[in-house]
Design brief:
Blueprint (H helix, E strand, L loop, with lengths): L1 E6 L4 H12 L5 E4 L10 H13 L5 E6 L3 H7 L7 E3 L3 H9 L5 E5 L5 H13 L6 H12 L6
Parallel strand pairs: 1-2, 1-3, 3-5, 4-5
Helix pairs in contact: 2-3, 4-5
């Protein structure tokens, strides 16, 4: 599986901890879309880069990391076709995949230890979407983004 990952400055350390594990132990092809340091940057830029990367078909799933995960979640979910889920523990990741077909995992670098992030990411990356009644619901999420509110 090809995975894209990006962070802002507050998520840089956790991203730096995860990338070797994702490409090593997890055996994934990982595309690191930045940032490349802990110097201050704007999280919407990196969320946008990752979402466009996924929507072009360059990766199957993505991981975004900022300080608490809220800003990255809000930014990513502005893109039709992206279902980003902020997960604080593995059970959330399980349901994000099974019920919501999330394609982007969002983590809070300021609130999630590296070992916890690995547990959450492992669940997110291995679990599958259940489909069925959940597909009907995810289709409704996508249809809302097509509404003209003018």
């Amino acid at each position: 599986m090809k995975l894209a990952i990006a962070s802002d400055h507050a998520g840089f350390q956790l991203k730096s901890d995860l990338v070797p594990w994702l490409s090593g132990e997890m055996g994934l092809t990982v595309e690191d879309l930045g940032t490349s340091s802990s110097d201050s940057v704007d999280y919407p830029d990196f969320a946008g880069d990752l979402c466009r990367y996924l929507l072009k078909g360059n990766a199957e799933k993505g991981i975004l990391i900022c300080n608490f995960g809220i800003g990255m979640s809000m930014s990513a979910n502005r893109f039709p076709g992206i279902r980003a889920s902020l997960c604080l523990f593995p059970r959330m990741a399980y349901y994000a995949r099974h019920h919501n077909n999330a394609n982007v995992l969002v983590l809070g670098g300021g609130i999630t230890a590296s070992f916890q992030a690995r547990e959450i990411a492992a669940v997110f990356l291995r679990e599958e979407f259940d489909g069925g009644r959940h597909k009907r619901r995810t289709d409704k999420i996508e249809s809302v983004s097509q509404i003209d509110f003018s």
